[in-house]
Amino acid sequence: MSTLFFTSDHHFGHKNIIKFSERPFTDVDEMDEILIQKWNEKINPEDEVYHLGDFGLSSSGKLRKILDRLHGKIYLINGNHEKSAQACHTRFEWIKDYHELVVKDDEFPRGEQMIVLFHYAMREWNASHWGTYHLYGHSHGTLADNPNSLSFDIGVDCHDFYPLSYEKVKAIMKTKSWKPPFEKSNR
């Protein structure tokens, strides 16, 4: 049985991201190796991984070698740095700009939970007023989390460089103080 995972902004091969995001790596080779290790610690070959953009900024040949080492079936949401990833399109299940994922989950009304996947943070998204989740990347932890919003930055810079499982995403969302905007008060 596969498990769902979510992540973003690995920037494989991108030397300057170490400085820009103050990543604790001495060089790009160390960064890439640790990112691969942390990915494969969590993800099994049959798992599904939704990557929300900025996969890598190396040559497509180098990126292909990294992709060949990563476990899982990878679905890619385009970020603003995907030229090399798009050249390796056969390694991805699909590449899209935006996706609304429906997860079967008996804890939710109608037995499912929708998650809006986009590289960029949004203040409103489809069915947000009904409790739909929104996961995004791009900001590398620079946006303050909104405890009243069922959204957060799924990027590796925010999660000790690990992908998060659907169960972990759901646990984080349960800590939010979001209330349905059309909820009737007890008057």
List the helices and strands and how they pair.
Blueprint: E1 4-7, H1 16-20, H2 28-42, E2 48-51, H3 60-69, E3 73-77, H4 83-87, E4 92-96, E5 98-104, E6 112-118, E7 133-136, E8 151-153, E9 164-165, H5 166-174
Parallel strand pairs: 1-2, 2-3, 3-4, 6-7, 7-8
Antiparallel strand pairs: 1-9, 5-6
Domain Calcineurin-like phosphoesterase: 35-145
Family: Belongs to the metallophosphoesterase superfamily. YfcE family.
Organism: Kordia aestuariivivens
Provide structural commentary.
The radius of gyration is 17 Å and the shape is globular. It has one domain: Metallo-dependent phosphatases (Purple Acid Phosphatase, chain A, domain 2), CATH 3.60.21. The protein starts with a strand and ends in a 13-residue tail after the last helix. It has helices spanning 16-20, 28-42, 60-69, 83-87, 166-174, and strands at 4-7, 48-51, 73-77, 92-96, 98-104, 112-118, 133-136, 151-153, 164-165. The model has no long low-confidence stretch (mean pLDDT 95). With 187 residues, it is of the alpha/beta class. The chain has 5 helices and 9 strands; from the N terminus they run βααβαβαββββββα. Strand 5 (98-104) and strand 6 (112-118) form a beta hairpin. The strands form 2 sheets. A 5-stranded mixed beta sheet has the order 4-3-2-1-9. This is Metallophosphoesterase family protein. It comes from Kordia aestuariivivens.
